[in-house]
Every structure is written in structure tokens, then in C-alpha cells.
Amino acid sequence: MCGWRCFCSSPQNTLQTRGFFEKFSIPPGYQLFEDARMLAEKGVFSLNQWKEFGQKNTVPLRTKGRLDAALQQAEDAEKERWENEKPPRQPLPEGFYESVFNATWSHVMGFPEDEGEDMVVREGQRPQELWEYTQTVRTFFSVGGDEQFRPPCPKHMILSSEQRWPYLLNHAVPIADCYINIEVHRVWKIVEGDLKGVFPPSRLNAPKMRRRLLIGTPGVGESMAAGSYLLYQLLQHGATELHVVVHCFGRNFAYLFNKRTRTVTIYEGENNIGRVMVNLARSGMKGYIIIDMAIHFREPSNDVVLSHEWGIIMLSSPHEDNLKAWTEQAGAIKIIMNCPDENDVKAICAWEMRNTTEEEQVEYWRRMHMRMDDVGPIPRCIFQFNEYEDRVEEIKDILEGIDASNAVHYGMVGGVEEWPSNDAPHKLMKVVRAIRQRDVEEFVNLPACFSIESELIAKLLEVSEENGIIFRLLKYRRVLLPELLERYTLLAFLRRVFVENIMPGLNELPPPGSRQQQRCVQQSNPEKHPSRPVALIALDHTSPMLDVQYKVLYLPESRTFPFVDGFFVRWRTAEDDGCGARETVRAEHGTQASTVRRFNSLLRSYFNNWETFAEGLSWEIIYVQHEDSTSINAWQGCVLVVHANVTGSNEREDPRAIAAFWNQQVRQCEVAVSAENFRSERQTQRGRQPEGEGKGGGEQAA
């Protein structure tokens, strides 16, 4: 018994022969455990990370073999699953070339109205005006969007092919229409610039035709819209300059459009497709290749075609499996396609419902707008009901499943990295274009919509108050649209370090009359800052009414929400305080009694028993400004418009009482925020610049 105890405590002393010691003390199971621990230390936790692991030669052969076999099995299973689930590919219809080449134009015009735009369909008409773009050394950027037109302005173009498009044949979708907005047309302008040689060569001996990589959020149309529109425009391009256009789907299927014979030929198999294109190039024919890379396809080989006279563009999602190695090897230049905006979706609704009654059109737009609020501006998930229902359930499951063990996977939100395969955050995100120095395009991963953003941030802060998602979102504030910048700045109020950073700069605006100035509420008790966000979605979504909660940052979705961009109710021993924040760049930001009245009316619609709760509630307004804004130094009054002779049933309805309450009881503060205020705790301690503010400034909006 003593000998057995001695062996267990120190086997190396009991077994003198090293071979016996290793046999008994390092069995295969233990060796695998040690290998797994070593891989974990190097950041390898999944098969996808193993696939990208660059030090496989340091792993014992037995473990390496098992992991390689498991990876191959997983890839084969995924490919087989997709092959079994995808609808059968449609046969090539007669007259397919002519159908695509002679596609019919229509367009939708936007006419300004009170809150948005009214859409008018011009069926069968090509727009007289198209969007304009400015040229740089390597790309084109839009000139101010709709601002370049006098109203009405073109919102969407539609190309209709009777025999459909290659993408739709390949996916067996019975739709003939290709939707083109300012983002899709920009892709063609860049490719056209390559064909015309308007961009100077990037280096000596660079290929005549650049390789391009188009990246967009899955489902926004980088495949269907951009791919089909590029095909149409390339077929229209001079037949002497471009002889063939090849539209590939992954490595193994391609449509070859021959502009000389005006025919379409299908080729299958990677080797067969490659051989055909090489032979065409060697015969002196010039062509352009569109490679559509859905998530289930392996990235194309670097030697798709041997000739530098041929152009190539790959259409891809941000998934690293699709694009990582090909981008590096092929030297492709990225084009980032932003998601459609609300008016783009509204224009599509107008086109689809053009032959229905006005009431049906209004109801259809209301439902699609509601879906967009739920899943983001992703047409595939908005207009296909099954896709919408599936995405809603996926989003719900993902958000409910966030905990301390997996919160680290959401570090990509607010970052610029490619999306790892089979990773849950993909369903919550969209890509937004960011322009770096020398016109290099990158994409920022942002929450797909307002409701997802609020729930995701609330969940991550619930798991850990130190989660850095807010600062990751803010580090790209220079590339964000104004409405995003405002929202993300307000979200910074959820972090105590931000509140403490701005406290020295919080100043109360001198109130009118003899009222005494006071310290701002946040200066008195910074720990009472809001701790989680809640989105106030449009009222027509028939969402249930809410109970008012303390220390919750309520963020209205609507850009027309009156008077504040966000607000929260802060509890004190003696009384309740309501604190509203308004982001502004102007030196004046007064309001009207009717605006405050509308604000109170909306709060009654959102919250249970608001009238009772609001009794005795004191208000403080914080005007948040950025460094380059004109400072607010004076009290912002509440104006009683002369013709507003409406009287209410109580003080909260009577415009005169509202104006008196504002000017006599509301407190106002002003604060200018700078990059310093957005530093995280760690950055403050180290005295570093915030991330994203490195050398040369870094980013700009596009």
C-alpha cells in the first residue's frame, strides 16, 4: 500500500526507466488535454480558429491530424447541408442574353413631405438624372446624396429582366426586378473607372485592370442588386473593349455571356471553368469576371484568370472564410457598400405596391417599416416573411443567451475586423463604410438597428459594467452619420467614467429672473447616472406600454421626437428628477410650448400612469455639444407662439402654463465634450489617445 501511495505522489521516482514513466504518466488522453490547453493559450478554441492558426507545426502530429480531420468533416457536412437545402437551380431560359441586355428601366422619385418623403413610381421610364460622384485616386464617393438634386430626387432605379437574372436563376427565386440605389450605382462607377483607366496605377508594373472586393452586410444586395447591375452595365460597355462577361457563383458554377455571339453558356466544375477562361484570355479576348461568394462557397483561387487585361470583382459578405486569403493574395481593393436607408426601403415598397390602393400602400409600408425596426435595413429579411420571422427568433435567442462566458465574442461590435464563421453576433450587425487615409475603405461593425443596439448594450452591461462596447462604438465617431453620433454620445452617459470626465465642464445656464443657480444633478451624485438603455420604438408598432423605471436611459427611435434626444429619471431621497439630454451644434436651442406639450403627450402614450408619476417631477436639460460647436451660454427659453391660442384641460396641457413651468422651474446645463471625455478607465490611466484617433486623424464619413 505504501509503495502505491509513493507511486501516485511521485511516479518519476518509482519508475526509474523513462520509457515506463512516460507510458504510465502521459497516456494519450492526457496528452490531448495538454495540447488543448496549449492551443487555448494561443487563442484557438474552435475549428474555425484552428483553420486560421499559423503555428500548426508546433502541435503534435496526433492532435493535428485529429483537428484537421474534424475540420474537413465539418466543412463537408456544411457543404452537403447547403446542397440539400438549396432550391434546384433553374434551367437556362431561351433568349436569356437578350432579356438581360434589354432589361427595362423604371424609377421611383422622392417628393419631400412633412416627416419623410412621398414616393412616386415612374414605370417604364429611365431617370433623367442620376447621382453624381467625386473621383479620388482610387475610387468614387457620392456628392451629398439627395442634396445634389432639387426636389423631387431619384430614390431608386429598377431594372426588370423578363427571364430574370443569373442570381435569381441560381437561387430559384421568381423575381424579375433588380433594385439600384446610390450605393449600388457607386459600385458600377468604380468598375467603369477601372475599364476607362481613370485611376492612376497603384504601383509600378501594376495590372492594367484592378481587382476589386465588394463587401456588404449579408442580405442587402451585394449579390443580387450589385451583381446583376454590374452584369447589365458590362454588357452595355463597348463590345470591342470587352468581349465576354463571366458571372461565377463560387468556384463551381458560371454563366459566360459572349458579347460577340450574344449567347450565354453554363460551365460547371472549377477546373472546367478555369480552363475556359484561360483559353479565352490566351486567344486575345478581353473579359470581366463577377464572382459571387455566398457564405457556403470557398474563396476562389488566386489564379482565376492569367491575363492582366481581365478585370475581377468578388462580391462577398464580411465572413473571413470568403475573403481573407484571397484579398491578401490577389491584392484586391475593397469597396464597402452601406445598407439601404429608410427611404430606400420605402421606395421599394412603393414599387412593389404600385398597382394597389393608397390604403394598401400605407399599410404595407407600415408593416415593412416595423420589420426594419426589428431586424435592421436588410431587404432580404424585411421583404421575405419567412426570413423575417426566422431572424426575429434568432435575434431573440442570441440576446437571451449572452452571459459572462460568451460576452467576449461581442468584442467585434464596434470593430473593423472580418466576421468569424458561424458566430452569433453576425445576426445583430451591419457593416458601415469608413474611409481611412489615401481613400482606403474599411468597414465598421455596428448594431443592425436601434432596438438591437439598445438590447445588446443593456445585456452586455448587465453581464459586466466594465464592458467596452460603448467606447468601441464611439471611437469611430468621425465616420458616423450625425444621428448615430448623437445616439452613441448619449449612450456614453451609461458609463460612470464618462460622467465623471464631463463633470468639470458641466455649467448651469443662468435662469431667468431671480432664480438661484444650482449645481447640475449629475455633479451632485454622479453615481446616479443611468445604467441601461431602453429604446422607444415608434408608437404604430403597437408595443405594450411601459412602467417608468429609475436610472434607465430612454432613447426615442424617431428623429422627430420632440425636445430631447434621450432622457432618464434619477431618484433622490427628497424628490424625483427627470434629466433630458439634447445634442446640438447651435448656439441657440429654444423650444415652443407646443413642442413641450407634444413631448408630454408622447410620454403618456409610452408610459403607464405618466400623469400621476410626473406630479412633482423636476426637469433638468443637458445640452451636449462637441468641441467644434458654437457654445450655448444663455438660457434657452420656451416661446408661446402667438397663434397658439389653445387652452388645455390642465396645467400640463395649457400652453401658457407650460411656458411658465419651463421658464420658472426647468434647470438647464451645457457641456462641451471632446475626445478626452470618451477615454476609458484604462486609457485615462495610461494617458493614451483613444483608439481610432491615431496618426493623421484616421477616418472620415462617406
From TrEMBL:
Occurrences of domain Retrotransposon hot spot protein,C-terminal (ranges): 213-510
Q: Which InterPro entries match?
A: Crinkler_effector (IPR052980), RHS_C (IPR046836), RHS_N (IPR046835), Trypano_RHS (IPR006518)
Q: What is this protein called?
A: Retrotransposon hot spot (RHS) protein
At the top level of its lineage, which domain of life is listed?
Eukaryota
Species of provenance: Trypanosoma rangeli
Looking at the record, the residues that make up the Retrotransposon hot spot protein N-terminal domain are 97-199
Name residues in a coiled coil: none
Q: Where is the composition biased (Polar residues)?
A: 514-525
Spell out the Basic and acidic residues composition-biased ranges: 76-88, 678-696
Disordered: annotated segments: 74-93, 509-529, 677-702
